[in-house]
Specification:
Blueprint lengths: L16 E2 L5 E2 L13 H31 L4 E12 L18 E5 L5 E6 L1 E3 H10 L4 E12 L5 E5 L4 E4 L1 H6 L2 E5 L15 E3 L19 E4 L2
Length: 224
Amino acid sequence: MPMATRSVATPPGPGWWRASDGRWYPPSALGAPSAVTPSGTSNRKVLWVLAGAICVLVIGVVLGVTVLRGGSSSITSHGTMEVEDYSGSCRSDAGYSDITDGTQVVVTNSTGTVIGTGTLSYDGNVSKALSSAQSGLSACVYDFTVSVPGGLPRYGITVSHRGTIWFDSGQMESGPGLTLGSNSGTGNSGNSGNSGNTGNTSNSGNTGTGNSGTSNSGTTGNTP
């Protein structure tokens, strides 16, 4: 007569195993419920798998945003905007009332999405030096700092309502320079009246249209 299967609450000796009914069976027991893995170990494995999946998802999102924004690192760009006025003081001339401390600077990418902002800050020392260098010139220089994603093909800088001037990543890293003036000579980027804005990469600092006679005649970009 075969020996009956026994079950106990705790293992009475080595080799006994615990089945799915929660009881312990001897090594020779046949037909008992199958052995199960302790639930604690199974739960820990599930948690580790979930944690790994979440990490992969987060990394993927970060990389995707980085690619869409154009680069893996950001650029902290220190730029200037120079206002030149031969008809009075550029700080009090009504034609430049929108250009002052705190005026917003907006940077966009090639699709028009805003990627950085800053504000103008008047630099009195540089302004005085430039004004003294040429007779009759009232020069006002404003500094601004913006942080933008690196690696983009071009960056558009807009100050107040003066239009958008475009720069490449190298110019943004070295420091973009913008010039606004009504009567600053012949320049390579002259504009008449309020017709528009043009960017150039020369160091000449020439802007506007020689004799336009209007204080809002144009804005140009240049690299210092």
